[in-house]
Amino acid sequence: MSVLPERREQIRSAHAALILQVVAACQNAQLRPPVEDHLRVAAANGWGDLVTVLQQILGGKRDLGLLQGLDEEDSIIVESILMGLQNPETLPQPAGQADPGMAAPGLASVILAARRGDPQAVAWLGQMASQMQKAGGDMARMGAALGPLSRGLDDRRKLEKGMGPLGRSLLQGVLDELAKAELH
């Protein structure tokens, strides 16, 4: 499955803080210690390949050969950092400033692919759900809804249990996008 533009932006949004931190640390050495602490934790949590590449970027390496051997998600993160170093206007928006209108169509497209049995979409949804649950609040509840949604369960009342207005709005947007896709 190729990376859909919405999915690509979802990955960039999910990792915006890391992308922005690495770019800032490349431009200001005083910002490196907290980034290096963050990278040590990431390496301990199974992100070793990405951490190795990010350390090379922090060390000044900028070539596209850095992408070799990375999975799809890690590649998008590294590409975003490299592009951001060249042109800051390409950087993702910081958390809290992401366009919520992009989230619903992107999530719905991956949910549909997972429903059709696409193993990459299933894996990506699992990773996204895990990251959303770490964020807490409505994001955690939305992350918990991704599994049932990918299995075709779309009872809004059950899925939105415990969500605030923003979470319910995102869930409704995803459900609306799924309904549109089913009509086509």
TrEMBL record:
What's the protein called, per UniProt?
Answer: DUF1641 domain-containing protein
Organism field: Acidithiobacillus marinus
Taxonomic lineage is: Bacteria, Pseudomonadati, Pseudomonadota, Acidithiobacillia, Acidithiobacillales
